[in-house]
Amino acid sequence: MLGIVFEFIGVSAGVILTALGLDMFLIPNKIAAGGVSGIATVLHYVAGAPVGMTMLALNVPLFLMGIYRLGLKFGFRSLYGTISLSILVDILSSHLPVLTREPMLASVFGGVLTGLGLGLTFRFRGTTGGTDLAAAILRTYTGANVGQLLFMVDAMVVLAAGIAFNSWELAMYALITIFVTSWLIDLVQEGMSYAKAFFIISDRSDAIGQSVLQQLDRGATALKGRGMYTGDEKDVLLVVVNRSQVTLLKDLVYRLDPKAFVILADVHQVLGEGFKPLVKTPR
After folding, report:
1. CA distance 130 to 121
2. How far is the C-alpha of 141 from the C-alpha of 232, rounded, in Å?
3. 3-class SS of residue 144
4. What is the pLDDT along the chain (283 residues), one digit of tens a residue?
5. Distance between CA atoms of 77 and 124, rounded to whole angstroms?
6. Is residue 243 included in any domain, yes or no?
7. Which residues pair with 55 in a beta bridge?
8. What is the rounded radius of gyration, in angstroms, for the C-alpha atoms of the chain?
9. Is 274 inside a domain boundary?
10. Are residue 117 and residue 186 in the same domain, yes or no?
11. Among residues 165, 190, 215, which one ends one of the domains?
């Protein structure tokens, strides 16, 4: 029960941040950054329709279609997030200041707030409806990739906004907002890259592994690998270190085997000994 309450608090915080980004930056500056909110922004200036209620009206058929095509899997959190965002956008619009009329600042800071808000909402298993739901529905008809469909839907909204506002500059600012929002959503859900994963293929994997254990005080895992061209079997070392140890590990590998093949990858979250503790996600 406590986990459910915690999740609804998280979804509520995300919805509030999203509404602030829309009301203080994006909507007043005619930045229609894709999605249902972008369509609602265009209709607000073209037909005078309130943004929040337009968002709700557009989401209702999406939810009904989603239930029909995908079943009852969206949950109450999704319905709650969609309705509360629509209501908050209209309620707060007359009480919040417009912090800037500079389109670049509005597109960046609006993207930051909406990205943080949507990232929180998604992290706590909620949604605000919109194009992510539309893309999931379209995928059941076309079988296309959801990410590609999201890009296509958002691109069409931005194109329509550029035509409606007779300004391709506003359309380009909207693209900046989409980029910032997407980046922040990923950042909130995955975290910043604070660790690095090394995959090390070497004839001296044993020596490298022992040096990692003794000199860096990090663990090393040997994975069995086989070269498809040569057919030779070798150990592939997997080593995860923090950013301050990246250069030390590179030097260590080079010193022991200058011909080693090394793959370095970003790691957004590491759970277990030496890093963050592994805990159960609240449900």
Report:
1. 13
2. 46
3. coil
4. 677 788 889 889 999 999 999 999 999 999 998 889 999 999 999 999 999 999 999 988 888 877 776 666 556 777 888 899 999 999 999 899 999 999 999 999 999 999 999 888 888 877 787 776 676 666 667 665 555 666 777 888 899 999 999 999 999 999 999 989 888 887 787 666 668 899 999 989 999 999 999 988 888 999 998 888 788 888 899 999 887 788 889 999 999 999 999 999 888 777 666 666 655 554 4
5. 9
6. yes
7. none
8. 24
9. no
10. yes
11. 190
222, 201 in Cβ contact below 8 A?
no
For residue 239, what are the domain limits? 195-267
Residues 185 and 211 in one domain: no
Amino acid symbol at 176: I
| Count of structural domains within the chain | 2
Same domain for 138 and 112: yes
Token pair belonging to 80: 């709650």
Report the C-alpha gap between 186 and 179 in whole angstroms: 11
| 109 and 127 fall within a common domain | yes
263: in domain: yes
Antiparallel, parallel or unpaired: β 261-267 and 221-226:
unpaired
Bridge partners, 195 (sequence order): 242, 267
Give CA–CA dist 195/21, Å, rounded.
Answer: 31
Contacts (Cβ under 8 Å, ≥6 apart) of 242: 194, 195, 196
Question: What gap in Å lies between CA 148 and CA 141, rounded to an integer?
Answer: 14
Q: How far is CA 82 from CA 20, 147, 205, in A?
A: 15, 21, 53
